[in-house]
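User: Here's a protein and a ligand (pyridoxal-5'-phosphate). What would the complex look like?
Assistant: Let me lay out the input and then the predicted complex.
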Amino acid sequence: MNAQHSPLAGRPPAASDPTPAELIAARPGLAMHAMDGLTFADVPLNAIADAVGTPTWVYAAPIMRARFRQLAAALAAAGLDASIHYAVKANDHLAVLDLFAREGAGADVVSEGELRRALHAGIPAARIVFSGVGKSAREMRLALAEGVGQINVESAEELAMLSAAAAAEGRTARVALRVNPDVDAATHAKITTGRAGDKFGIPHDQAVALYRHAAGLPGIRPVGLATHIGSQILTMAPYRAAFARLAALVAALREAGETVEVVDCGGGLGVAYRDEAEGSPAALAGAIAGALGSLRTRIAVEPGRWLVAPAGVLLASVVLVKAAGNTSFVVLDAAMNDLVRPAMYEAWHGIVPVSAAALAAEPGPADVVGPVCETGDTFARGRLLPPLARNARVAILDAGAYGAVMSSTYNARPLAAQVMIDGGRFAVIRERQDHAALWAGERVPAATG
Ligand SMILES: *Cc1c(COP(=O)(O)O)cnc(C)c1O
């Protein structure tokens, strides 16, 4: 195989990958039992596959809760008056939103659909931040009518649109200006968002003038500044650079007589997919406090991935194993239409067998693929895995964020089922999509010829 042509080109050789046993040991929610096989939050994944079939997304509520509390505790320990606005786009299932709502979370939303989901799940409008580079006038009117607590504005053009919408509705929009701090988050190019030339935010050298302009516009009340520099960020240097820019802007605005109540530090904290050191809430809280603490503003954060990625797995079965020289293709019943991250971002996900016997067997290199008619439908190349027979089950790890939300029905594959584990029991939280649902809503016009 020519590595240049691999969709996962640039990855280190498989021999340096963590083994399935190491991946399990590094994740507190996972354990291998001799009889039951792999368990997740104390529930055997075999029991879920037997009851619901595969492919199935499995989420562990206790892990989501624990992570939310760990982040909240870190922000409080750093002396910050901080609110957590869960980034709905990472995993927008109502059960996930309900869980975070009960923890007291707000939400960060980027569309009418996400706003409606968050409200439907019981997240108070006042705790919702509306982000996004292209909010429509209709979305603005809805946000104003619902009383959304903060609208993050990304351009002068958007500010004018929002002012017109607010004035027409007789409402006042609480606005934070999203600043593009021109820092490189040192993550994948498709998910870095804070460099000059990225489509997001207001260039930082224009922010003070626009804030002052906003303060004079009808229907607009500027309340603060926001930034979001990217996703899957594992080091603090880019954060520190961005927060330092925001701190300088807050000082300049106050000098100019403006009020700045809140600084929204965005999301982006990364997780350990392979063997990276996971992004640390304490380190993030320290970076925020170090740059912004003395300004005594309220702080907002918008984490998505960090809260939910390790709290989900995609459970799949082996359809068949195809021999190919000194490697083999393990073809799963899950595919890129379910989990697109490997195809879209060259993302590395751990893949572990569900059976204890399989885990103990001598590993060999395998390409793990789905059945979709695209070479990009590849979960892993040259991965060292124990021999997996037809119908063997595997868990694709850390699939709780940007997993089910990015699914499609490409190749007319129904959306997979979703299950949530809590208190040692599991519940189906979305049925596997019915085939007839694939064409529900389609109309065939009467033949005219
Ligand atoms: C995507 C996004 C987030 C969440 O990013 P994560 O990397 O999942 O934490 C937060 N804020 C905004 C504006 C976003 O676009």
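Summary: The chain has two domains: 3-60+309-438, 62-305.
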